[in-house]
Amino acid sequence: MKFAAFLLPLIPAALAAECSRDAGCPGCGTVDSVSFTQNGNTYTATSPSYGVMTMDDTTVSVQNTSNKWLLFCVYGSICVPLGAGDSCTTARQSTDNPALGLQVWSQ
Question: Where does the signal sequence lie (predicted)?
């Protein structure tokens, strides 16, 4: 047990940073809505006060740059909850459509 307790802090956070895709947020409201910009095969939506979502051909990455819990959503496809300062990555699905824009939700 002591050995596991010693090793656990050494595991990089990136290994545990798989996004939860289908979160809800009862009582939340939209605090920002931004469009994605395209650079080659990469789409990026940046909310200056809250964070960034990036999509490429295979992945979706989300980073919460704020100091509170937020929900990052692309309407009809993906809603990712993230704590303050957290980030995560998940496989991009065919329904992840950057044309719908990014909405940021907060309680």
Answer: 1-16
- Name the residue with tokens 């819990």: 69
> Residue 68 is part of which domain span?
14-106
Prediction pTM value: 0.82
Going by C-beta distance under 8 Å and a sequence separation of 6 or more, which residues neighbour residue 52?
Answer: 44, 45, 46, 61, 62, 63, 65
Q: How far is CA 25 from CA 16, 20, 67, in A?
A: 22, 13, 18
Q: Give the Cα separation of 72 and 4 in Å (integer).
A: 33
What are the tens digits of pLDDT across the range 54-102? 999 999 999 999 999 999 999 888 999 999 999 999 999 999 999 999 9
Q: Is residue 72 part of a domain?
A: yes
How many structural domains are present in the chain? Answer: 1
